[in-house]
Amino acid sequence: MKDTLGIEKLIAFSQAKETPLIVIDLAQIKDNYQELTTLFPQASIYYAVKANPAVEILSLLDSQKSNFDVASRYELDQLLALGVEGSRISFGNTIKKATDIAYFYEKGVRLFASDSEQDIRNLAEHAPNSKIYVRLLPEESSSADWPLSRKFGCSTEMAFDLIVLAQKLGLEPFGLSFHVGSQQRDIEQWGNAISRCAALAKELKETKQIEIRMLNMGGGFPATYKLPNAPLEEYASKINFYLEREFGDDHLQIIIEPGRSLAADSGTLVTQVILVSKKSTGGTPRWVYVDAGLFNGMIETLDESIKYRIVSEKTGPTDNVILAGPTCDSMDVMYEKEKVELPLDLKQGDRLYIRSAGAYTASYASVAFNGFPPIQTFFLQ
Ligand SMILES: *Cc1c(COP(=O)(O)O)cnc(C)c1O
Prior knowledge:
One of its GO terms (molecular function) is ornithine decarboxylase activity. Keywords: Lyase, Pyridoxal phosphate. The chain is α/β, with parallel strands linked by helices. The chain has ten helices and 18 strands. Strands 1, 12, 13, 14, 15, 16, 17 and 18 form an eight-stranded mixed sheet that branches. It is elongated. It binds pyridoxal-5'-phosphate (PLP). Pyridoxal-5'-phosphate binds next to helix 10.
């Protein structure tokens, strides 16, 4: 576990602040970035901005010479405002308006993901000569806690045709990409995807003399939640082995797009107990209602997908509770099946600390559902 920010320091920092809030330890993000560069020395890192687009985080990663993967013109504008050049940015969203392609091109972006014929044609028109990488559908797997499965990517047969089309239309058929699903706990998923890319690259070379020069392995690297996963070192050594096995010394440019693994462990969401109650006299279990829920930070507890570590300052005996948020939507229940053990003497006003909440929390919160304001983030240098 990598929480560099101890719970005592966290309590001291957040004590006088109104809940809910997120505290981000920027030093941890820097450590995570450096660890990734050490473990994947041959890879260029493109931070997936959507995980946490806070300007403090973007500036820090900019100072570390990171590249950025963006999904919209709004994210692009944020980076341009910081002075990040278009040459360090990829437009990784395969679902994009033609007008946005033109905007990215005008701002100097020359690296684009695609997975459809219409999009390739739009790119040829609005981003001529740009580098294109085609995204493959992932294989079905249940080992990603937050799968990205069917919406993005295309079959290998279609990817072949799109690469050929891209070349024909004057684009540079640069690479292939995949995303094995976020918080992917089965490292072999990278092995499968790398093998499929290698087979496709070979076919393109042999039948069309098209040389694939780049492989974008997406995100999926883990943060530290309750379900166990292998350490990042093991991910890296296995993935580097797969790359070597499939591509040998092809001098392929490698890209990774970490979001969660860079940002999540740096953050703690501090929330306060609003009520502890039961649904009938003497009944069980206890319901614990807190002031953060699915609409203000905890969206990834949808279907209880991400199982956060939750810490209380109280240390007495515990039992299992149902944990729910503050809004008037019955969907705003974080954990009902998953066992959440909290102290028996937990009372209104007590605080809970939800660890590894630095990714897909603040950026994913609703604007003002039920009038609750967006959750605030504070940064520790
Ligand atoms: C969301 C996303 C990522 C980041 O994935 P993580 O699992 O958070 O690391 C990377 N690439 C693309 C294209 C994405 O959409």
